Amino acid sequence: MPTVYYATRDGQAQRIAEHICRKLNDAGRQAVACNLLPALPASAELAAAPLIVLVAAVRYGKHLPEVDRFLATYRALPTPPPLALASVNLTARKPGKTTSSGNAYLRKAIARHQLAPALAVAFAGRLDYRRYSWRDRQIIRFIMLLTGGPTDPDTCIEYTSWDAVEDFAAQIVALQHSH
Predict the structure, then answer these.
(1) Range of the domain at 15
(2) pLDDT digits 0-9 by tens, 81-107
(3) Which of 2, 21, 27, 168 minimizes the number of CB atoms within 10 Å of its CB?
(4) Whole-structure pTM value
(5) pLDDT tens-digit profile of 115-152?
(6) 3-state DSSP call for residue 96?
(7) Do 86 and 131 fall within a single domain?
(8) Are residues 107 and 118 in the same domain?
């Protein structure tokens, strides 16, 4: 049974992970989504998995701390299972920023943890200023100002390409067939 691990603060990575699970379940894979925040899985659990799927949110220019801890645990496995890695960040809303070569957050995570993922993709997240705390709203608006994104505090935009999420899920199914 594949587990789709995720790390999120605003819920979009969870929505993406659950969408992947639905697609895997439709393909007969009985997948479950698991939040990394309460506790990381044990090394033995990761080592026994046929495939690791990770949906990792970026906040303020970095993947969440539990993502780094998870990837460090994964990387320390003697024989790590194949990894399907998805980074969720607003940079991926721009053309050419959804691949490991085009997305700096994804590229840096792969390099920092010396990974060789079987699949690696970046999905654009959701921008919803109304859901953020005052502090978060100001920081994200500043980042959007610097990157040419929307700064209106009433903005709520779903940037995630659900077709791309479904393609990723289909690639996971194909990867499981080959292993």
Answers:
(1) 3-125+160-178
(2) 999 999 999 999 999 999 999 999 999
(3) 27
(4) 0.94
(5) 999 999 999 999 999 999 999 999 999 999 998 999 99
(6) coil
(7) no
(8) yes
